[in-house]
Design a protein that fits this description.
Blueprint: H1 7-28, E1 35-36, H2 48-56, H3 58-63, E2 67-71, E3 78-83, H4 100-103, H5 113-121, H6 123-126, E4 137-143, E5 150-158, E6 161-172, E7 178-183, H7 189-196, H8 211-221, E8 232-236, E9 244-247, E10 255-265, E11 268-277, E12 286-291, E13 297-302, E14 310-314, E15 341-345, E16 373-375, E17 388-389, H9 403-423, E18 449-451
Length: 454
């Protein structure tokens, strides 16, 4: 006698098939590579601004011998300004990088006088004077409770519309010594906007592409076709950036569309729609800039990263001969040496290190990640095999014989410190050091670059 298969069995088989499909789909992690029109052929970068700004940095080095200035090639601005051997100025901005006659121009009541005076002193290096801050938006002014470090962040705007990544950040010590300054401001934003959008000279810039069309073009760029009737608008603002929120069955979550100025070169700004969307057919969330006049995709970034564990052969205590927890009274004996341990870890803080510790999710990662980059002269970063960093170490030999193991230890310790400090509150908004800040505030692009001497 034939027996029929209960409908419930078909249902369970269907659920299992869907689960296996979803698992396989997620494991493929199909995402498109990042794209930036400024870095793609046949686009030719105008490096004249970069060359001029680098030459202008010589005036700072004349006053501060150990000053370091890195000029950003896309924005033409000093992305990092520090002093290798201390601060850029003395207390209250005196003695150091800022001449007294310039410092005295600003009132004592101005909490940002030192940063303004520094910018005015090195106008040729920044491409603008301190008056540019008058049209910028102060988005953060915070004093850290324990150290007294003051962190200040401005967002550059033109016509009330933010410049993409146009942030200037400064840090002052508790004694008002200038610790560091970092800028991605465009030198002459008004003229840069006029060059990029000639119609702006006669009227306010009006996008030819509307926000719904920008979302459709962005979705099409990642392989998703969304018809106009498949979009539902949930919110829109009437301010300059014209923020819109949409939902669609073809999107995993709501999409955000808003206006941004895109620095095509240090001298040209294009008006674009910044679109953030997560299509249902991919595991990746994207940020895409769509030209508001032509509809061309100017930039695409995948905002999704995957964690994958890595194994390190390292010392997990404070030393190869650890003194923790310490003796009750002073002694002359050296603590007994301990062996290294194989530690498999993705991170110690999932929130602080959502990408894991290494950049590469393949089988041959290097000692380079979002939190730190560790290297040694002559060999650069160290490459792991099958996601394992395991190199020989014999402390009875000269250190030059175990450089690879030393770099791995340095990389492990730096990431451990990053995650522990993150859990204690040293986050992006308070100025921690990371390659990417995942849109959590603060200024990105400043991971510690660690070097192990040979």
């Amino acid at each position: 006698m034939k027996k029929s298969i209960p409908p419930m069995v078909f249902g369970l088989l269907g659920i299992l098939a869907c689960f296996l499909y979803q698992t396989t789909w997620a494991q493929t992690k199909w995402v498109l590579p990042d794209y930036d029109k400024r870095l793609a052929a046949p686009m030719v970068q105008d490096l004249s601004v970069v060359t001029d700004r680098e030459a202008a940095a010589g005036s700072l080095r004349a006053r501060v011998t150990n000053a370091v200035v890195n000029i950003d090639r896309l924005h033409g601005s000093p992305r990092m300004v520090i002093n290798r051997r201390g601060f850029l100025t003395g207390p209250a901005g005196h003695d150091g990088a800022i001449p007294e006659e310039i410092l005295s121009r600003f009132p004592e009541t101005d909490p940002h006088k030192i940063i303004r005076a520094f910018i005015d002193t090195y106008q040729s290096m920044f491409g603008h004077d301190a008056s540019v801050l008058s049209n910028a938006v102060l988005i953060r002014y915070h004093t850290m409770p324990n150290s007294g470090l003051k962190l200040t962040l401005w967002q550059q705007t033109v016509d009330g519309i933010p410049v993409f990544q146009g942030v200037l950040a400064g840090a002052l010590s508790s004694n008002d010594e200038l610790v560091s300054l970092s800028s991605l401001f465009i030198g002459d934003p008004e003229n840069a906007a006029n060059r990029g959008m000639p119609t702006r000279k006669s009227r306010e810039p009006v996008p030819t592409i509307d926000p719904a069309q920008a979302l459709q073009l962005a979705a099409l760029n990642v392989g998703v076709t969304i018809a106009p009737d498949e979009l539902t608008i949930l919110y829109h603002s009437d301010n300059a950036e014209q923020k819109h929120i949409y939902k669609s069955l073809k999107l995993t979550q709501e999409a955000c569309v808003r206006l941004r100025w895109f620095p095509l070169t240090p001298k040209i700004l294009r008006l674009c729609w910044e679109v953030t969307l997560w299509p249902t057919n991919t595991p990746g969330k994207y940020l895409i800039l769509v030209d508001a006049e032509t509809g061309e995709v100017m930039l695409r970034r995948c905002l999704t990263r995957w964690q994958k564990p890595v194994t390190f052969n390292v010392f997990t205590n404070d030393s190869p001969t650890p003194f923790s927890p310490g003796w009750s009274e002073p002694i002359l004996d050296q603590p007994q040496a301990v062996s290294r341990s194989l530690v498999t870890v993705t991170n110690f803080s999932p929130t602080g290190s959502p990408m894991g510790w290494v950049d590469d999710d393949g089988q041959f990662p290097t000692t380079s990640g979002n939190n730190a980059i560790a290297r040694a002269p002559g060999i650069g970063t160290v490459i792991g095999t099958n996601r394992v960093f395991n190199f020989p170490l014999d402390l009875s030999q000269e250190p030059s014989n175990y450089v690879h193991a030393s770099v791995v230890q340095l990389f492990y310790d730096a990431n451990w410190y990053h995650d522990v400090l993150y859990e204690l509150g040293f986050t992006e908004s308070l100025g921690n050091y990371q390659k990417r800040n995942f849109r959590r505030g603060g200024f990105e692009g400043d991971p510690p670059n660690l070097r192990c001497a040979r």
